Each structure stands twice: as structure tokens, then as C-alpha cells.
């Protein structure tokens, strides 16, 4: 028997499958609790970019294998490295890609998330977790600051909860995560896929350009003046009413049929 090549690259850790308009990205490194190793970071960013570029993909689902969604940075790789060599320097690109994706991103959380893994959950547009899943910002107990992930997490969390959980690093459950805005829903394990499918089905009914435009609107900083805010939003709204998707949507409504952008299952 030929011994395995010790220098061979590890097998693929992040998979991409596009079916019926849904791009499913599966993190598959259960041996290290789906930690954000260098290979996983590289592959995750690549799969995200490919899913966004795929014209057949309408919705992105971020999923995982094993009992842990993502345990955060791979600490074995970060020990002994200088500030300029730390893998955390690559995480902003991943979180920003999820956050700013023109296509809706749904996080399917079937297990625990810690630190950077919670940042991924927060970056998604919609997140559904099993009720037994747990979350924690463990950084301060490791002598670290949850700085990078705060960019996606803080817009989601209630301020009091953010102070409590960032500073204490205490573990909290999925029902609490839903109550403070980190996730959209906490469901029993046997209902997770159905809950994700329900969100995906609803998202697939939206026009791609309208979904992208709505995401951009939600991310944008709003003017301090209500008059200016209304003026900008009126202009945006009118452009979509007059645009091809808006006209098609209104025709489809009048004709009692599905709009042309609806992808069959």
C-alpha cells in the first residue's frame, strides 16, 4: 500500500452547490470545529465570490457539517505570529462579502458558534439556529478584543446585551440570541431545514435587482433630515416603479401569474 503524501494539500473544506437558484456553501471541517483556518478562510471567500458571480444563484445559504457551526479563528495557527501575520487580518474580507452580497444570505446554524463564527452569523441577512445552539464572544478570556466581528455584530445586538456579552464572554443560547437580535429564529433541530427552506422560498420570489437594491438601502447611512431622507427614498422608489422589474411585477399581479424572475423549484 502506498502511504499517503504527507505534503499533499488537505481535501476541500468548503463546498459550493448551486441548485434551483440556491447556492449552498457548506463549511466542512468538523475535525477542528469548523475553525477559520487559513485554508478554510481562503476557500470560504472563494466560494462566496463564486456564488455571488453565478447568475443562476438567487439566494446563498451558509451551512456546515458537524455539531459546530464555526468555532472562530484557528488558534493553533495564530500562536507565535506577529500582528501582520495574523489570520484575523483576512476575516474582514469574508464578513464584508457576506454583509454586502447583492444576493440575500441565510445562515443555517445547526450548532455552536463562537467569536468569528458569531461574526459570520451576524453578517448574514437572515439567521436560523437550532434551539440547542450556543453562542459566545470568548475573546476577552483569551486576552483578545472582539474588534473585527463587532463591525457586523453590533448593528444586530441590543446595546445592553452587547456590553454584557462582549465583556463577560458568557455562553448564551439560541432563544436569547433571537431575543437580542443576533438571529431571526430559534427552532427545534428537526425543524431547522424547514425553517431555512421557508425563508429561501420567500426570498426566491423577490426580483434580484429589487432584493439587491433593498439590501443596499438597508445598509446605507440615512440623512439626518427627514425631508432629505424622504427625497432620496422617493427617487429610489420611483426608479424601481418605472424600472423593468417593477413594470413586470405589476403586470404579473394584474394577470394573476408569477413574475418572470421566479425560479421553479
TrEMBL record:
The lineage of its organism: Bacteria, Bacillati, Actinomycetota, Actinomycetes, Pseudonocardiales. Gene3D superfamilies: 2-enoyl-CoA Hydratase, Chain A, domain 1. Belongs to the enoyl-CoA hydratase/isomerase family. This is Enoyl-CoA hydratase-related protein. It comes from the Bacteria.
